[in-house]
Amino acid sequence: MSYAVTVDTSRPEGTPELDELQRAGVIHLLGERLDAVDVLEGEAGEIVDVTDHFIGVHPEGALLKVFIDAPTLEDAEAAVEALIGDILEHCEPLAGWSIDKCEVELHLDSAKESLDAADGPGVPPSDLGVRAATHHMHRTVAAERPGPSDEDRAAMRATLRALAPQLAGIGLASLGHLTPEDVENDEEWGEEFNVAVEDAELAAGALFYSVDILLDELFEDIDTLRDSPNAAQCDGGLLQLEGLPAQFAHLYTPLFARQLVVTAVDLTARLCRLGFVQLSSVAEELLLRLLLETTEATLDIHGLLDDGAQEALNSFRESVYEDLDHEWLYQSAMDGIDQDPAAALLGISSRGVDDWFTPFNAGRPVHPYVTGSATDEE
Questions:
Q1: Could you give the CA distance from residue 182 to residue 57 in angstroms, rounded to a whole number?
Q2: Is pTM beyond 0.85 here?
Q3: Half-sphere exposure of 47 (CA within 13 A, CB side)
Q4: What is the rounded CA–CA span in Å between residue 245 and residue 222?
Q5: CA-CA distance, 33 to 87, in Å (whole number)?
Q6: By the 8 A CB rule, do 281 and 356 touch?
Q7: Which helix (H) or strand (E) holds 163?
Q8: DSSP 3-state assignment of 304?
């Protein structure tokens, strides 16, 4: 059985944040050691095959996704935790690093469905690509299912609001909830034009909650795309890549997908730290669009996408995007406008796929992994 095990690791407490050069070094150290491992033997002698891995590093640590074939979920988690623990223990530059989480992440509804169907005709397919396609189909028809109960909605609302402080880089003002201190002229401030604090907190918590969903689905897309040259020729269903401009699908290669995940890890880590200011690239603009769509879907599934929550998310869109040039990428009629000589006079920058990861300016650095061409053949 194939499993994707998520591993969260963090640097020792009291040590400075990792800079770009250190992050590149961590990727090299972890990748070199994981590349050397093909087969693991568990405590009971079971054989576990390591089929692929992905590493994303942010200032606080590293997020890994290890794809393995194992007899059981427990075997998968135990084998990967032992492997990563051994690497951290015996790699001197990573001494003191800790494993905060090591698990196969299952959404509750999907897990219950798998258990209920384990011995019946509805048993979930083992192929990850087929699962992805099935998952997308389920998301499409989710609106036809009975909605959650009032009790379930209230519990989920409380859960999401409690998560709001975790989105530390985004203040409630960016979600439309202003206080007199947030405006220059008190006379311009009024509660009648303000997003309620409850709605702003709900939106913030839902954004944080949806970060895991976005990253998990991007990782699944990488695995689905692994044996295909690009998304346009991929037989399996894609979860998040399908939300990118369709006219460029032939350029969404496995390398592009990995660069997108690295960018997503970096962006979402910044959103969760104090000091987030601006988006750094077109890729980040598109990823934030995917995160907002995932957040709206999360709220909708739980019956919480009301006018207040939608207004808070709309306020966030207006505050975080400097312009909406990236939306032109979804319009086939606008294809090539950035190549027009008049484009520069209008402030329209290049929108080729290879330029999506280029920082807008020197003050907005991007991860070193994404500086190469996303369309190069591997």
A1: 34
A2: no
A3: 4
A4: 17
A5: 7
A6: yes
A7: helix 150-163
A8: coil
Q: How far apart are CA 35 and CA 40, in angstroms?
A: 13
Quickly count: other Cβ atoms within 10 Å of residue 82's Cβ: 15
Distances from the Cα of 281 to the Cαs of 102, 132, 362, in angstroms?
A: 31, 28, 11
- To which residue do tokens 């692929």 refer? 52
Look up residue 285 and give its two tokens. Answer: 């603009």
| 360 three-class SS | coil
Shortest CA distance to 351 belongs to which of 286, 269, 273, 254?
A: 286
Provide the 3-class DSSP secondary structure of residue 184: coil
Tell me which H or E stretch contains 137. helix 128-140
- Dihedral class, residue 279 (left if φ above 0, else alpha if ψ from -120 to 50, else beta): beta
**DSSP per residue over 193-234, as a string?**
GS--HHHHHHHHHHHHHHHHHHHHHHHHHHHHHTTSSSGGG-
Residue in the structure block whose two tokens are 């990428």: 329
**Lookup result for tokens 């402030």:** 347
Q: How far is CA 51 from the centre of its chain?
A: 22
Angle subtended at Cα 114 by Cα 108 and Cα 119, rounded to the nearest 5 degrees:
155
Q: What are phi and psi of 65, to 5 degrees?
A: -125, 115
Per-residue pLDDT of the chain (378 residues), as tens digits, is: 778 888 999 999 999 988 878 888 888 899 889 988 988 887 777 888 998 888 888 888 888 888 888 888 888 899 999 999 999 999 999 989 999 989 886 544 444 444 444 444 444 454 444 444 554 454 444 444 566 888 889 999 999 999 999 999 999 999 999 877 766 655 555 555 589 999 999 999 999 999 999 999 999 999 999 889 999 999 888 999 999 998 899 999 999 999 999 999 999 999 999 888 789 999 999 999 999 999 999 999 999 999 999 999 999 999 999 888 888 888 765 455 445 544 444 344 455 688 899 998 877 888 888 876 665 554
Asked if residues 56 and 63 have their Cβ atoms less than 8 Å apart, the reply is: yes
Residue 210 amino acid letter: S
The C-alpha atoms of residue 147 and residue 153 are separated, in whole angstroms, by 9
